[in-house]
Amino acid sequence: MKPIRTAIFGTGFMGRVHLEAVRRVESVDAAAIAGRNAEATRRLGAGFAVPLLTNDYRDVLRDPTIDAVHICTPNAQHFSMSKDALLAGKHVICEKPLTTTVAEAEELTSIAARQGVRNCVCHNLRYYPMVQQMRRLREAGDLGEILVVQGTYSQDWLLYDTDWNWRVDSTAGGPSRCMADIGSHWFDMAEHITGLRMTTLCADLQTFHATRKQPKHSVETFANKLLGPEDYIETPVDTEDFGAVVFRMGARTRGCVTASQVSAGRKNRLSIEIYGTRSSVAWDQQRPDELWAGHRDDGNQVFVKDPSLLKPAARSYADLPGGHSEGYDDTFKQVFRRFYASIGTPGAAPEYPQFVDGLRQLKILNAVLQSHRTHAWVDVPAFETSK
Ligand code: SOE
User: Fold this and answer.
1) Average pLDDT, rounded, for the chain
2) Average pLDDT in the 9-36 region?
3) Is residue 21 within 6 Å of ligand 1 at its C-beta?
4) What is the pLDDT of residues 299-351, one digit of tens each?
């Protein structure tokens, strides 16, 4: 089969992660990189011997030999780049959040449907083997009825007022920062595992630093710790550092979650706990190969990832034998592998999050912002997602 030719838009942290993962997928060639920073584009492209390097993503869209694009730029650019790519007939993988407004996400979802191309929003964290195992345990009825869903997504890389990244700036990242950047992963995972949908919520957000010291030059995600205090500009901040959300999933299931980018020592801790009438499960992204199972009338257990011990439907998400850890990078490989396989198999049902799932997250985020603003519970509009 002829390899599928793909391009990466954006050369920051996510651009590199996508490029490395694409290189691990069978029958896909990394054919182009588009980045605004010429030196970063050259360096990334040279390292991976990518043939077409440009500072104008439209050069890629005009190239009929390129089949697909990955959009890994700051959030505010997702909409126009995705729209242009869809209209150029490319298959599109876009980083989350899909857009910065519900209206934009709705427009992209309908253009994608009209164009008949494959589309994916990168909620990759669903594809840790143990997250898939939790989903399959729930499907098999091992958890019983889900009563309570709780957890956190906590990081510390924006704790100090000297910490800066484009995500802090709402014109680049959108009106929500912490909830859109990491809270959305948690919500997506909670719905994916439980099969339930958030129906109503009450949110409280907090911006601890009303101003931050913005470096005079652009800073790579998570790389701010390497800067000295000398060349900063004091800049007002209008995006949240922390959020707490209490929610309902239908008539009986209840939950709560916090998302934080100011929790010292928590580097990238997504933790989720699901309590059912039969048993419980709990998982932490920083110990990805372990799954805790809790029992009322028996000893609790810690399962260690081993494909042969996973539920059959979770097995294809674990490529390595037990004792060989699989982590963050591997989740991208799992998404991209399924995305590219679906391009090669036109009738096949997609097995990855699509733009409609990105739209769902935008609706949840909208409800979070509205609830915080009005100090009130807000309903999350019900609609069909791909899950
Ligand atoms: C930064 O908070 C970030 O890179 C997010 O943007 C990713 O989606 C998350 O997976 C890790 O942290």
Assistant:
1) 96
2) 97
3) no
4) 999 999 999 999 999 999 999 999 999 999 999 999 999 999 999 898 899 99
Query: What's the gap in Å between 268 CA and the centre of ligand 1?
Result: 8
Q: Which one of 124, 152, 172 terminates a domain?
A: 124
Whether 291 and 266 map to the same domain: the answer is: yes
Domains identified in the chain, total number: 2
Q: Give me the CATH number covering residue 309.
A: 3.30.360.10
Contact 327, 345 (CB under 8 A): no
Any domain includes 179: yes
Q: What is the mean pLDDT of residues 20-45?
A: 97
Question: Is it the case that residue 121 has pLDDT exceeding 80?
Answer: yes
Regarding whether 84 and 216 lie in a shared domain, the answer is: no
Domain that holds residue 169: 127-323+361-374
Check pocket membership of 224 for ligand 1, CB cut-off 6 A.
no
Distance 221 CA to ligand 1 centre (A): 9
Q: With a 6 A CB cut-off, is 268 part of the ligand 1 pocket?
A: yes
The answer as to whether 217 is a domain residue is: yes
Distance separating alpha carbons of residues 67 and 88, to the nearest angstrom:
10
For the CA of 157, the nearest atom of ligand 1: 2
Per-residue pLDDT tens for 192-215? 999 999 999 999 999 999 999 998
Q: What is the mean pLDDT of residues 67-85?
A: 98
Which of 157, 166, 182, 331 to mutate to test ligand 1, by most ligand atoms within 8 A of the CB atom?
182
181 lines ligand 1 (CB under 6 A): yes
Residue ending a domain, choose from 74, 100, 124:
124
Concatenating the DSSP letter of every residue in 149-215 gives EEEEEE--TT-STT---GGGSHHHH-S-SHIIIIIHHHHHHHHHHH-----EEEEEEE-S-SEEEEE
Nearest ligand 1 atom to alpha carbon 222:
1
Q: What share of the chain is helix, strand, coil (3-state, %, to 5)?
A: 35, 25, 40
